[in-house]
User: Fold this.
Amino acid sequence: MLRRLNAHALVCAPLIAACLLTAASGRGDVARAAAVAQVGGCAIAGQLRLGGREAHGGAAVQADDGPVVATEADGRFQLHGLVPGTFRLRATRSRYLSAVAEEVPCVAGALTTMGSLDLAGGDADSNERVNLFDLVRISAHYRQCGTEAGFDPLADLNDSGCVDLFDLVMVMGNYDRVGPVGWTVDDVAQPDLDDASFQADVLPVFQRYCRGCHGFAAGLTLDSYASLMAGGTNGPMIVPGDPQASRLFLRVSRQLEPWMPPGTMRLTDAEIDALRRWIQNGAPDN
Assistant:
């Protein structure tokens, strides 16, 4: 019996500590946690093409000061796990004029799609202008290849290995253009508000992961709708209609430490999404 109690204590100790820490978690903590949201946030996607190239990978896309993602070979990209709001989106590629979109909306649980855009090449000196200086640079290294002394890789606008006619054509085709160029939103998908049932989708998750400890830890019981909504000794864990303000969701989706459940066990993406949709739909007793 004593060994069983000790083993149970080892499993539940991190959870009990987390519940004690919850008392210090106010809306400020929720806001800070949202800054690193990976699940239950929003996403922005699109496609960029690089003029003068057959492959369109390697352009960098960034929302505000967040992580940078690179476009795939077909030019597609996706920024996911963003905190819902509006963003300044910027796309850059060496020797190409940049593109910027202001006030890009990003809706919780939804996907914003940017309009397809061709980035204009020819900016060999990366000053957001295609002008005489770029033309002179290309001309000075015309017909040089990478194996030759004095080869300037920045003059090889399409990374073909040589400065050739295609590089000259790229400069002349975009001559006098300046960046950043404007970038527009194509579509904002509405959030997925498909019904999620407490009895069918949410309660089984609690039974699978949480009931081993949350029959006594911090006064929080997760075996019924009423007990969940009553919260624990540290207050409510669910804010109906707002997953990002619900501490239980933030912990199980690993946005707010300490994560739940403790240890290496974690909810699947489908289970987390079901909990998000249920809360977003108002956390009904259904």
Q: What stands out?
A: Helices lie at 2-22, 27-34, 132-140, 165-173, 198-209, 225-230, 247-252, 269-280. The radius of gyration is 26 Å.
